[in-house]
Amino acid sequence: MPRSICLTDPKNFTELKVTSFKPKAFTANDVEIAITHCGVCGSDVHTLKQGWGESKLPLVVGHEIVGTATRVGDNVKSIKVGDRVGVGAQIGSCMQCRQCQDGYENYCPQMINTYNGEYPDGIVSQGGYSTAIRAHEQFVFPIPKGLESRYAASMLCAGLTVYSPLKVNGCGPGKKVGVVGIGGLGHYAILFAKALGAEVWAFTHSESKLDDAKKLGADHVSNTNDENFAEALKGMLDIIVTTMDATPSLPIKEFLSMLYVHGRLINVGIPDMDKPLPTMHAFDLVPNGAYISGSRIGSKQECLEMLQLAATKGVKPWIEELPMKEVARAIEGVGNNQVRYRYVLTQDLA
């Protein structure tokens, strides 16, 4: 059985215990993976702290997983034993609904999260702070040559979460893209918007991150603490991706004013359940016919495209590597917003 680091007491969410758990039954469509790397995501912290609801305990989090395929089912066609592969935030879907049939399996009403989800037989899905994981072939992604595992890991949630809305909403040459929040998600949004060929504006309220945004490739940087930060950009931007938690303090009206006609604001920052979206009026959408939307990770097709783009363009996230047994340090760093900009755990449980 896999050795894992799991949560047993939500009141002490950084005191995780090393234990073993029984994995899901292996099927003909599954791939078994020996985990070498796992990113630490903000979702992990929200889940461990019970910010998104009660967890199914005991629970192993982690959904930015890279490793080596050690076993493949008889029906698996795209992966062979020995391949370097990854798993992101989704590990299952019904495969039969309209969304799944149209390649939008990430919007399947019966999607199974990589951890804290539940398989049809009642087994709780367990994540990547572990030595191994089993997943359906549809949710296992080959890692292209030229992309190091330590860089690929955090792309499988954080990277895909911003790549998908950028791609869906037409990010590319000639487009003006705004990125709100320079954190784990936001730094990826800058990297991928630039890799796709867009002109990028970065918005942050943290003075210390202004230079970081420029180093990441942003063409323009704006401090949202400046009272009139939006004035000069009214009607200019085609796409804005907001990656900071969408709490009442998010200046959403100002960001909407910066959009061109039928411009799109896509929110991917998800706070705890007790923090609603900021208040706005219907008139705020009228002057430029702006659209507001969300996004849910990404599809397999988008993930494969993203990984190949990263390999081709040399996209390298800013990461700090830690042994998996030091995960408490990473969780605290993410929770305190001290990470620049993703932690990646390396295997030392095996």
Model description:
The chain has 350 residues and is of the alpha/beta class. The protein contains eight helices and 17 strands. Strands 3, 4, 5, 8, 9, 16 and 17 form a seven-stranded mixed β-sheet that branches. The chain is globular, with a radius of gyration of 20 Å. Helix 3 packs across helix 4. Helix 8 links the parallel strand 16 and strand 17.
Secondary structure elements and pairings:
Layout: E1 3-6, E2 17-20, E3 30-40, H1 42-48, E4 65-72, E5 84-87, E6 90-92, H2 98-101, E7 112-113, E8 132-136, E9 141-142, H3 149-168, E10 176-180, H4 184-195, E11 199-204, H5 210-216, E12 220-223, E13 237-242, H6 252-257, E14 259-267, E15 291-294, H7 300-313, E16 319-323, H8 327-335, E17 342-346
Parallel strand pairs: 10-11, 10-13, 11-12, 13-14, 14-15, 16-17
Antiparallel strand pairs: 1-2, 3-4, 3-8, 3-17, 4-5, 5-9, 6-7
Helix pairs in contact: 3-4, 3-7
Task: Provide a compact summary of the structure.
By secondary structure, the chain is an alpha/beta fold. The protein has helices spanning 42-48, 98-101, 149-168, 184-195, 210-216, 252-257, 300-313, 327-335, and strands spanning 3-6, 17-20, 30-40, 65-72, 84-87, 90-92, 112-113, 132-136, 141-142, 176-180, 199-204, 220-223, 237-242, 259-267, 291-294, 319-323, 342-346. Strands 3, 4, 5, 8, 9, 16 and 17 form a seven-stranded mixed sheet that branches. It has a six-stranded parallel sheet with strand order 12-11-10-13-14-15. A two-stranded antiparallel ribbon has the order 1-2.
